[in-house]
Amino acid sequence: MTADEHATPGADDTGGAGRVFRVLVVPGVNPDRWLRVWRERLADVPLELVVVEPPDAEPALRAGDADVAILRLPVDRDALSAIPLYTEETVVVAARDHVFSVAEEVAPGDLADETVVRPDDDLVGWTDAPGEPFAGGPVATTADAVDLVAAGIGVVLLPLSVARLHHRRGLVSRPVTDAPGSVVALTWRTDTHDDLTEEFIGIVRGRTAASSRGRGTPEPAGRSPKGGRKTTKAQGSSGGKRAGKTGGGGASGKRGGGSSSGRPQRGGTNRGRRQGR
Questions:
Q1: Beta-strand pair 132-133/115-116
Q2: How confident is the model over 234-265, as pLDDT tens digits?
Q3: What are the Gly residues biased-composition ranges (predicted)?
Q4: 100 lies in some domain
Q5: Rounded Cα–Cα distance for residues 215 and 224 (Å)
Q6: Is 176 in the same domain as 187?
Q7: Last residue of a domain, one of 131, 151, 180
Q8: How far is CA 213 from CA 28, 42, 53, 82, 207, in A?
C-alpha cells in the first residue's frame, strides 16, 4: 500500500482535530484532481491515498481501512453506497506480432478463434466473451495473464488504464467494439457516512465550496455569513454567527464526476463512456 506523500506525518486517525481522511483506490484510477481540491478546501484535514489490488479493495473498505474507495463495480450494495463515475473502455492486449497489431480496433467476433486468458482478478467481467478459455490452469492475477500474453500465449481483455499500466515492449492493445466496459465508482460504507465523506462526494461530483453539503469552507474571520461588513459590537451576538449547513444525507445516484470523455477531469487518465444522467 502506498500512502499519499501529502498526508501529515504522525496525524491521529481516531477523529477530531487529528482526523486523517483515507481514500482507497485501485490501479488505473487517477484521483489527483479531487485530492488537490480537497487540500484547497480542507487544509486542516490530512488526506491519505491508499492503493490496493482490486480483489482487496472492497474488503478493505468494509473493514474500515479507508473512509471512501474509488474502485470497479460491482460491490455489495447492502453494505456499501456507490456513485458510478465513468465507464472505462475495454481493450484486448496481444503480442506485437499478433494479427491484431495491424488493426485499429477489434470486433467481438474477431476474438472467436483466440485463446482468451481470464485471470482470477478479472476486471472486465465479460463472462460470455467470444474465444476459447486458456486451458493451462488458473491464472491468479492480471500481471500473470499479461506475462502469458507477452510470451505469445493468447490474449487478455483489460480496462484501458490497466492495459497502460502493464504496457511493455512486445505488446499491443486495441479497443474492442461493443464490449462491456468497466464501471468505476466512488463507494463508502453506508453506516459510516459523515460530513467529511459528504465533502469528498461533493468534490468528486463537482460541487463548489459554496454549494458543499459537507463541512464546507469556513468564512473569513471578521466577516458576516454573506461576506459583507465586519461584525461589530453593535450588531449583537447574532450578527457574527454564520448560517452553515450540516452534513447529512447519504448521497447516492447515477451521476458521476467524470468528464464527457469518461475521464476524471484534468489529472484523469482513463478513457471511457460517461454514465448517462
A1: parallel
A2: 444 444 444 344 344 444 444 444 443 444 44
A3: 237-260
A4: yes
A5: 18
A6: no
A7: 180
A8: 29, 14, 31, 17, 9
- Position 164 in a domain: yes
Count CA within 13 A, CB hemisphere, residue 77. 8
The per-residue pLDDT for 77 is 93
> What integer pLDDT is reported at residue 252 of this predicted model?
40
Same domain, 79 and 153: no
CA dihedral (180, 207, 44, 63) positive or negative: negative
In a domain, 224, yes or no: no
Helix (H, G, I), strand (E, B) or coil at 191: helix
CATH number for the domain harbouring residue 143: 3.40.190.10
Q: Determine, yes or no, domain membership for 44.
A: yes
According to the model, what pLDDT value does residue 193 have?
Answer: 86
Question: What pLDDT digit, counting tens, does each position of 5-51 carry?
Answer: 444 333 344 444 578 999 999 999 999 999 999 999 999 999 999 99
Q: What pLDDT band is residue 102 in, cutting at 50, 70 and 90?
A: very high
The answer to whether residues 207 and 169 belong to one domain is no
Domain finish residue from 180, 208, 225: 180
Nearest Cα to Cα of residue 157 among 106, 87, 113, 98: 106
Question: What residues make up the domain containing 128?
Answer: 90-180
Give yes or no for residue 97 having a pLDDT over 90: yes
Residue 12, amino acid: D
Instruction: For residues 199 and 254, state if they share a domain.
Output: yes
Predicted TM-score of the model (pTM): 0.70
Of 163, 122, 169, the C-alpha closest to 271 is 163
Q: Look up cell 456513485; give the residue.
A: 83
Nearest Cα to 89, choosing from 2, 165, 142, 159? 159
pLDDT digits (tens, 9 = 90+) for 49-87: 999 999 999 999 999 999 999 999 999 999 999 999 999
- Output the nine-digit C-alpha cell for 47: 488526506
